[in-house]
Amino acid sequence: MRGAAGGLLIVAALAGIVAPGRARACVFAGPTPHTIDVAMVGVDLTPPSLAKPVVGDITRLDATGCDANSECGHTTIVSLTNLATDDTTPINKIGYRLTVIAGGGYTPKTGVFDPGGSGDTFPVYLGADQEDFDFTLEVVAVDAAGNESAPQTVRIHQDTGACSIGRGARGGVVTLAIVALVLAAAARRRRR
pTM above the 0.70 mark? Predict the structure, then answer.
């Protein structure tokens, strides 16, 4: 009797490990809303200094690992670098307001948001399944006292050429070379 109960306990534990559990939906935390430190208002009068932002990296995240009911789908994240500095506010506490001034296909959240993390990049989350895009953002940095930098612009664009004819000449050469190698290997194998 004791052996059977122990066996049932082991089977139940293994079933809990092996059986698929409820899948979690993919959710990006997104940027954190920027807060003004009321103790700094009127004390810090110097606005942050914002150079021209630069597109540092464009990362495409596939929906792999997300269930069919996920809100994520494929997501593209553009990391802006060359961000603001301030005399009193740490870089990870400087907020940014984004406004599209040219192009389309992206609508930023309304408000001012902190970059999060170390503050050396600001993530711009594009919509699901957005592969090709071309728009210009106006970026304004806001310090903890609410002082605003002069606006700067940055063009964000990517053309994957997924549906273009005549693109990817370099890719065609690589594909042709791989096909030639496979055919040569097959011919050599046949001779043996």
Answer: no
